[in-house]
Amino acid sequence: MSDVEPLEEGDGERTVRGVLHQPRLPRGDGIVLAHGAGSNRDSPVLRAVATAFAARGVAALRIDLPFRQARGKGPPSPAWAARDREGLRHALAVLARRCSGRLMLGGHSYGGRQASMLLADTPALARALLLLAYPLHPPGRPERRRTEHLITLRTPTVFVHGTRDPFGLLDEMEEARGLMPGPTRLVTVRDAGHDLGARTATAFAASAVDELLALLG
Q1: Which of 69, 133, 178, 202 is the least buried, fewest Cβ under 10 Å from its Cβ?
Q2: Distance between CA atoms of 15 and 83, rounded to whole angstroms?
Q3: What pTM value is reported for the model?
Q4: What is the mean pLDDT of the chain?
C-alpha cells in the first residue's frame, strides 16, 4: 500500500513535476522513474513499476521530463536530451530530501536511455538503474545500436524487455549486457512489445523490482 501525491518543486528549467508514491512502511530508499518519448508520467509502465516499488517500501517518483513539461504531446527533439538528463539529476536531488536511504534511477525507453547516459557520466548519483524496454536500436535498424555509453556504465542495472520488442531482440540485449562492466540482470516479458504489455498485465513490475533490489543487495 502507498500514498500517492502530486509533487512540484523548483522553478524554470529546474522544475521537477511528478507524482510521488510514498510507501506505508518505508525502508528509506527511493527511485526516480522517467517516461518514454511518446508518453508522460502517467504511462501504464511507470504506474505499474512505481506501485510495485512502493509495495516493497521504496518511494517512487514518476516524473514528466523537461521536454514533456514544455510540450504536452509528441516526441522530443535531440536538442532536448541534455536538458532531460538535467531534469533527472534535479529529480534525484528532490527525492534525496525525502529519502534517507539509497537512491535509484530508472526509465522506460527514451527515459531509460537518458538515465543510463546520466549515470555513465555521473555514477555517484544513484546506486542502481532500471531500464524498461531499453531502445537498443531503431526498429529495423540493428546496425544503429545505442551502446556507446554502456561500455562505461558500472551502475548495477536491471533490463526489463519484451520478447517481441522491435527496438531490440533478446540476443541483442544479451550482447549489450556483455559490454557493460557493472553487474546486470535481464527480466524477459513473454509476448510483450515495447510497452511491456503494461495495459493488460503488470506482473513484470514486481519481478523487475525484486531483481533490482536483489542486485543492489
Answers
A1: 178
A2: 11
A3: 0.96
A4: 96
